[in-house]
Write a structure and sequence with these properties.
Blueprint (H helix, E strand, L loop, with lengths): L1 H7 L4 H8 L6 H10 L1 E5 L14 E7 L2 E7 L2 E8 L4 E2 L2 H4 L8 E4 L3 E7 H10 L1 H25 L4 H9 L2 H5 L5 H7 L4 H10 L8
Antiparallel strand pairs: 1-7, 2-5, 2-7, 3-4, 3-6
Helix pairs in contact: 3-5, 5-6
Length: about 210
């Protein structure tokens, strides 16, 4: 039976495995999810804002990296980066109707699964176990958001880099070029390179 399931949900395996890390999903619910979820492949540099209403869409990154940008004082600032196996939920927008200021950009060739928010909540209503999984996923999502806030408040660049290197996020983003990590940590590229040279054993790409 397991072999048949692997064939049936093969291309959704990462999505299913990621969700089932929070709890078991019934075959019936898996069937519903595979029928409702759609996929899109996007090129490096493309903005999700151009193709989607971000306030009404839930994304899952099957492949690649997506970053969130905001513009402040005519400068683009990277607020977060997510990679393979991550959800993009847009928590603030789910609980409000304010227009979003963020831009979501692919920083590599990427493949995403997506579903409209209304369809997403309709699936949750059918399966209480899935709703429990969603609640746990939200808690984890909030925890990661709090970690980003904490990281941004570390005033010293070496300490900020060290904290990042010791986090799970460093493993998730290990394939990214240095420039994106430097932007994420708000460290000047030349400073970032110097800090890595000073402590080569802490190279996050290892």
């Amino acid at each position: 039976m397991e072999n048949l399931n692997n064939l049936k949900y093969g291309k959704f395996r990462l999505l299913m495995d990621t969700m089932e890390a929070y709890g078991k999903i019934s075959d019936q619910t898996k069937e519903i999810i595979t029928k409702e979820v759609q996929s899109i492949k996007i090129k490096k540099g493309e903005l999700l804002n151009d193709s989607f209403d971000l306030t009404n869409t839930v994304f899952f990154i099957q492949k690649g990296f997506i970053r969130c940008l905001i513009k402040t004082n005519e400068k683009e600032v990277t607020t977060w980066i997510s990679g393979k196996g991550s959800f993009i939920l847009g928590i603030r927008e789910i609980f409000g109707d304010k227009p979003i200021k963020e831009k979501l950009e692919a920083i590599s060739k990427s493949e995403l699964y997506y579903i409209g928010l209304e369809d997403f909540f309709n699936i949750l209503k059918r399966d209480f176990k899935l709703f429990e999984i969603y609640q746990k996923l939200l808690q984890d999502y909030y925890a990661k958001a709090e970690e980003r806030v904490y990281l941004s408040k570390i005033p010293n660049a070496p300490e900020r880099l060290q904290h990042f290197l010791n986090s799970e996020k460093a493993k998730e983003l290990k394939e990214l070029p240095d420039k994106y990590i430097a932007e994420l940590l708000n460290i000047r590229p030349e400073t970032f390179s110097r800090l890595k040279i000073i402590d080569e054993n802490q190279d996050f790409t290892k």
